[in-house]
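Q: Sequence in, structure out?
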Amino acid sequence: MTMAYRIPFGHGEMTFDAPEWAQVDVLESGRAAPVADVPGVTRAALRAPLATAPLRELAADAIRRAAGHRPRVIIAVTDVTRASPDHLLVPPMLDELRAGGLRDEDIAICVAIGLHRPSTEGEKREKLGAETVRRHEVFDSDGKDPAKWADLGVVPPLGVHGYVQQRIADADLVLATGVVEPHQYAGWSGGRKTVAIGCCGEPVIEATHGLRFILDPGVRLAKLEGNPFHQTVTELARRAGLRFCVNVVNDDAERVVAVAAGAPDEVLAALVATAEPLFTRRIDRQYDIAIGGVGYPKDTNLYQASRAATYLRFAPVPAVREGGVIIVPAECPEGAGQGAGEQRFHDALASAPSAAAVVERARHHFTAGEQRAVMVALTLEHCAVIIVGSADPELPRRLKMLSARDVQEALAMAHAHLKRPARASVLLVRRALHTLPVLGAAVAA
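A: Exactly. Output:
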């Protein structure tokens, strides 16, 4: 008897039946009560923040430090590839800044696009709300034009030369939003990364996402201690002037379950304490096959959606055994992605004769964006990857992966890849970018 399962796909879900041969285990994040009134909780956090003065007092201090010139305040926000509910977080921030004496024209909002494509006017309104966009300047960061960067010097521990948007470096007060969730390099994402990576110059991305960091044993999912990437972005954000973060933790349905505001380090620590028991989940074996769900907005393009495969591969112990299969349903309406980094990801995989050649080339020549190609290539050296439901079915094939119409077909392909055993173990991770399988670890149930 077969059993029906569901997995995120675009704005909805994809359903499939498990074949008779499949022994399916379902892994989901832990549950927490959603925040009923996110703007209200955010306002309270802004008035009683962690390890710093209330936001309206910081606003008044920015006016004093401006010393006669017009105060300059920048709020760095995530772009459309991140599920940060900025339309709920930014308006309370603006209210508190105004309460501290700032005017609308004193406050600009920087969309931290890194090397992703520019944000559209519609995306800005969707992200921030039409009223916010009407009242404030909203601009994209520019990681390609050195004329727009400020030099932050050489940053320990691995000697990265730092650059950030000049407008951020010149601001009297810098704030950031973000989502705290497991991150391939930073351990946990969050507000310091919004500024340090999202608003940096391209050389920062090229350095921090190169093999020196990727292959460092400290650079791992859900790991902060001894992680040189985390140490680097923390110092970059500090030098850039980041004073205050408003961050959230989302559940698997992208509902906010925690909000924290205040000094960046303390906000990160507080929300990691909430997120870690939710997202770190125990498994007792490696699996033959894993199915990793993504959903909107991360499955907008293959650059982002491929994280599901690499997260499963680069869990503390790979969730899939060597020679197994990872299946990722991902709509990818924007193909590989439209930004400079996404195009480099595409070209690095498409032009190489093999996955091994991608990794070998990166040892000798590397540009920002190609790190995603390297992570996918390292995953392909470990196991097969099947992308399901891509708007362009040929796209995964060009990038050394396999392509299937639906999960049912992907499972049949995986079964054949495994030489059609009578039984095969399958791990279904509904939200593979949230839920981190940890083999045999003593983690929260």
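The domain at 4-29+284-439 is CATH 3.90.226.30 (2-enoyl-CoA Hydratase; Chain A, domain 1).
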